[in-house]
Structure to design on (328 residues):
């Protein structure tokens, strides 16, 4: 389900976006992940969106993106953002940029056309994801003498309530991707995720984590890291680690009617609420978007608001009930 047209009126909107390679092929090694990581940061700067956290795996990636409400952008800021896309420009790119900047400075109709073309690519989650996927595809195919489609489909997105338990739980789920895949026991040891970057001191990652935990008064990174780690591991870290046998046992518990597990344990299972729930937040937040969702889907009746099952999620709800194969 795509939620790109659902907006939080008069405020920033937060989205969890995920996209996968064609046929789910394991195409990305460390070099490819590093290039994609840099592109995500560059393009988020150009588009004026904030990466709260992310995770890049061998055949897909996740980003938790905060998109600000529409604001005016000065010509000086347009120039700065444009230059972020080309940190090492060719002579042709330098010449093109110079002509564009001269036109902006001169003003008039040509300048307005340039502004519109640039601004339409900013402040929009769809434009951000489109740019990331297209630019990385060009680089990947050129670097690997490859032709054709790299990505399997349009990206999935979930509109996320931008504060508190919904935001924090979604961030933890994203950061735990390499743990669910069995690559590491602790996400801080996986270099291609926002949590690991925050632990290592990357400025943008620290700012993202502080925003995620701002409702806890986490103005400083130490407080945010402590709160995030407590959510990821629970009060007893040893109980949160899941081997394949323990994961199978956990899923068996969830298959039972009203089965329930600790949040730190269930986040180590695949939970489709976080990729296919369409809208995730408090009951009140999700209910506020039922009308818009109904119109977008052209449904006769408004959808139900469904509380998450399987753990003590608090007041977490989604608009897609996902009666089958919620966990796996």
């Amino acid at each position: 389900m795509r939620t790109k047209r659902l907006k939080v009126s008069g405020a920033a909107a937060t989205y969890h976006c995920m996209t996968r390679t064609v046929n789910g092929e394991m195409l990305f090694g460390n070099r490819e992940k590093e290039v994609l990581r840099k592109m995500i940061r560059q393009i988020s700067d150009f588009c004026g969106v904030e990466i709260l956290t992310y995770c890049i795996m061998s055949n897909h990636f996740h980003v938790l993106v905060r998109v600000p409400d529409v604001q005016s952008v000065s010509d000086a800021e347009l120039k700065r953002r444009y230059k972020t896309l080309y940190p090492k420009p060719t002579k042709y790119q330098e010449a093109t940029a110079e002509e564009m900047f001269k036109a902006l400075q001169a003003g008039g109709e040509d300048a307005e056309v340039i502004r519109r073309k640039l601004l339409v690519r900013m402040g929009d989650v769809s434009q951000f994801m489109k740019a990331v996927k297209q630019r990385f595809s060009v680089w990947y195919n050129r670097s690997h003498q490859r032709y054709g489609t790299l990505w399997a489909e349009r990206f999935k997105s979930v509109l996320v309530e931008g504060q508190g338990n919904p935001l924090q739980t979604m961030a933890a789920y994203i950061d735990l991707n390499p743990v669910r895949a069995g690559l590491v026991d602790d996400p801080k040891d996986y270099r291609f995720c926002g949590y690991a970057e925050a632990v290592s001191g990357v400025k943008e990652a620290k700012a993202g984590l502080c925003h995620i935990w701002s409702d806890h008064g986490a103005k400083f990174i130490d407080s945010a890291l402590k709160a995030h780690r407590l959510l990821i591991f629970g009060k007893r870290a040893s109980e949160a680690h899941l081997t394949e046998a323990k994961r199978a046992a956990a899923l068996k518990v969830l298959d039972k009617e009203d089965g329930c597990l600790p949040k730190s344990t269930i986040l180590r299972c695949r939970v489709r609420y976080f990729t296919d729930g369409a809208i995730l937040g408090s009951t009140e937040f999700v209910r506020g978007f039922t009308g818009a969702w109904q119109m977008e889907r052209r449904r006769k009746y408004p959808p139900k608001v469904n509380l998450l099952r399987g753990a003590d999620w608090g007041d977490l709800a989604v608009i897609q009930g996902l009666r089958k194969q919620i966990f796996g």
Summary: The chain has a mean pLDDT of 87. The chain has two domains: 13-69+148-318, 75-119.
